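Here we describe the complex-level prediction in full. Unlike the single-chain runs in Section 2.1, the two entities below were treated as one system.
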Amino acid sequence: MDKSIISVVGKDTTGIIARVCTYLAENKINILDISQTIVQDYFTMMMIVDTSLLSKPFSEMVRELESVGEDMGVQVKCQREEIFERMHRI
Amino acid sequence: MININEVLETNKMVEEETLDVRTITMGINLLECADSDLNTCCNKIYDKITSLAKKLVATGEDISREIGIPIVNKRVSVTPVSLVGGACCKTPDDYVIIAKTLDRAAKDLGINFLGGYSAVVSKGMTRSDELLIRSIPQAMKETERICSSVNVGSTKTGINMDAVRLMGQIIKETAEATKEKDSLGCGKLVVLCNAPDDNPFMAGAFHGVSEDDAIINVGVSGPGVVHHVLKEIRGASFEVLCETIKRTAFKITRVGQYVAQEASRRLGVPFGIIDLSLAPTPAVGDSVADILCEIGLEHPGAPGTTAALALLNDQVKKGGVMASSYVGGLSGAFIPVSEDQGMIDAVSCGALTLEKLEAMTCVCSVGLDMIAIPGETPASTISGIIADEAAIGMINQKTTAVRIIPVIGKSIGETVEFGGLLGYAPVMPVNKYSCEAFINRTGRIPAPIHSFKN
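The structure predicted for the assembly as a whole is:
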């Protein structure tokens, strides 16, 4: 298991989850958990995904996801889960 | 399981509070490159650096992308060059050729600074050390990315006052040699006391002789993050203040620890240390001075500044030590003038003087850093400033340093622009009374007694 966190922040619009999930499916990235909330009118979503079957370099996938987000006017980030574990857990 | 708020908090630190990892510095041992032929020595140096650090920049960029946190600088530090060039350098000009070789290696690797054009002369100077020191002005003129440092004292050995006297002259000569660029050469030259062997930060970085063949050291930063969290607890007690700084330092350091371990694994080079430092940059919101103001000072330099800085420095260490198994380097708050907008403002409005900065260096990491002074300041006065800082370091068993720029052709109140990470600075007044007779004495100041601490 190779866990990463995808976060999406931006103005709410139709199809955000669909577009992101389509990209993930095409790249064999499995979604383990999704949570979503609206913070100050902003759509905020977090996914925990498994990238162990990903066939391209991680940084390329990060760039592609960013541009999927840019098309919809939202910010999409994908970061290794470990960095959050390190920062927020003793 | 990580929750959404923790993810948002981390990303906000990066986007709004300038959280970054300041540097991944690869330390490289060059002792085996020594040779009696200068050309052979240079070739060995170039080959060793460029092969070991070949993937340093690319690896740093990959890690940065994968964790979504900027890694600003990728750098190299090498064995003090005076130890490597001793066998082949007969004149200062020979050392300049090594400096140019290092500069070429730095350019080809795509790194912005390479440190270690250094000599460690805390007790005495060998012929090789002296040749290197005398080559510094020309080396700084003819290179772009080389950082130079000279360690002139330590708690165990005392202060080599012959080296202190020489460094006053060398700083003046370096300022003169680089006067077309506002004496920028002095921004890449630092005089230290108790220099650590594993410092990843420039200009004082070198790869000490106590180190592995190659090592990865990481310098973390994040003054903006600390400033931001302190805004949220304005007016709280010292207990809450300290606790908040510690928690934040912990989080920042954990990022550095992760980056260091990943870089070490991917490059196949052992992990050395994390340097827990609050290192400001000229960018708005990336300032140690802002933190001091948030703690409760109108400007750094106001009464209370030394206490506030002592508190800040200590909490950063306490939080950071918990977050990493190996802490080293300089580890503390940096207080450069030209690289910190809040410090520049404090000097410009008259709140912060050279003397107060000296007092501040007693309680935080390093020393008088990136301070512009009038170009006509005598060499003996610069030596006097170095001796004062070295004495603070020697007596208090801490690292101290002087990176001071006598800007040729500029006087008090004028501004000097260094550009990039080095920022800009107002030229500060220096006490005009002479210490020449003191500096002209030869020999060294003995090591201090380690008892009767008063």
